Amino acid sequence: MIDFSEIAIVIQMAVAPAFLLTGIGAILTVMATRLTRIVDRFRVLNEGENLFVKKKDKADEVLSLICRARWTHIAILLTTISALLICVLIAMIFIATEVNFNLDQYLSMLFILAMATLIFGLLSFLREVSLSKGVINIKKRPYRQNN
Predict the structure, then answer these.
(1) Which of 29, 45, 108, 135 has the greatest number of CB atoms lying within 10 Å of its CB?
(2) Using CA atoms, how far apart are residues 92 and 14, in angstroms rounded to an integer?
(3) Against a cut of 0.90, is the pTM above it?
(4) What is the pLDDT along the chain (147 residues), one digit of tens a residue?
(5) CA distance 69 to 39
(6) Do the Cβ atoms of 17 and 90 come closer than 8 Å?
(7) Extended strands (E) in 12-85
(8) CA angle, 93 then 122 then 75, to 5°
């Protein structure tokens, strides 16, 4: 039987990954919101005739939206996998104390894998953000100094 001091230590060890899960949840919310915006814009372009958009511009924008949606899906997938791995990590921390089995190497590998998938998810999201900048055409204006 495990004494209460060991349980307190285990709970302390599980708190950091739990906070990490909160942060990942916030990141997933942002990603899902961006995906919703992409889908909404795609629907607007495909519904009826848009008098303000040329056919060539419309086709280019639809292709851009499809590419952005693909990158956002990849980002959400990888970030969700990272969150699931962290959940498994938290469960394994508690299981390791109950079974009295040394899972340190597995826990380390699981954490590294979770961080790697999170990194690749964020890089995919960064790629989508960089693609979204191509939609905005900013005209350069000459610099005017106000006297």
Answers:
(1) 45
(2) 10
(3) no
(4) 556 666 777 777 778 888 999 999 999 999 999 999 999 988 988 886 665 667 777 788 888 999 999 999 999 999 999 999 999 998 988 888 778 778 888 989 999 999 999 999 999 999 999 998 876 654 344 555 554
(5) 8
(6) yes
(7) none
(8) 95
In contact, 37 and 97? CB cutoff 8 Å: no
| Total number of domains in the chain | 1
Please give the DSSP secondary-structure letter assigned to residue 141.
Answer: -
**Type of residue found at 14:** A
Give CA–CA dist 12/16, Å, rounded.
Answer: 8
In a domain, 144, yes or no: no
State which residues form the domain around 19. Answer: 4-134
**Residue 124, domain member (yes or no):** yes
Handedness of CA 74, 75, 78, 84 (dihedral sign): negative
Spatial separation of the C-alpha atoms in residues 49 and 33, rounded to whole Å: 26
